[in-house]
Amino acid sequence: MNIDIWYQIFDFLDFKSQILFKNVCHEFSKFEITNMYNVKTSKITQTILNKCDKLIRLDLYDNIKQLRVNHLHKLRFLKISGACNVDDIMELENLIFLDMSNNFHIKDLPKNIKFLDISGFCNLDKNKIDQLQLKKTNTFKNNKYENSHVFNSISQYFVAT
């Protein structure tokens, strides 16, 4: 089977499956981890992030360590909700899905985000959101953004009640 097909299959696997897949044969051991979305987030450190620079999916929910993610240029799905201590994501140009619910560290967003979760408390300026071409937004329990004029440019959004 063509190696490119194996790479595509590999990208769809979760973290644990990617680790197991890499151990199957020598050729697969060269594959780089792309999914850290279902990992115990307290175990993720800056050293690990530096080694996994091909990540596409990353979950840092409630990870209280000061982490830098701007070097993860392939990142498309990012969860930095809760007590996560990431404070800058501006260089993540490929990011399309961002869950930053209850995260007050982020103050600015990359422009390519299409799906945004700002439920609970967050510290974003309404003007920053208005500049985005969002497809879907979750503002559940976030009185700062619910029913705001900011969402005029959004093609589809929901406000959970």
How would you describe what is shown here?
With 161 residues, this protein is α/β, with parallel strands linked by helices. The chain has a domain at 32-114 and 121-127. It is 17% helix and 11% strand. It is built from four helices and six strands, in the order H-H-E-H-E-E-E-E-H-E. It has a six-stranded parallel sheet, with no helix packed on it. The protein is elongated, with a radius of gyration of 17 Å. Mean pLDDT is 85; it is low at 147-161.
H/I helix tally: 4
Shape: elongated
SSE succession: HHEHEEEEHE
Structural class: alpha/beta
Work out the number of β strands.
Answer: 6
Low-confidence residue ranges: 147-161
Strand order within the widest sheet? 1-2-3-4-5-6
Helical percent range? 10-25%
Euclidean distance between termini CA atoms:
49 Å
Report strand %. Answer: 5-15%
Q: Cα-atom Rg, whole angstroms?
A: 17 Å
Indicate the mean pLDDT. 85
Major sheet attributes: 6 strands, parallel
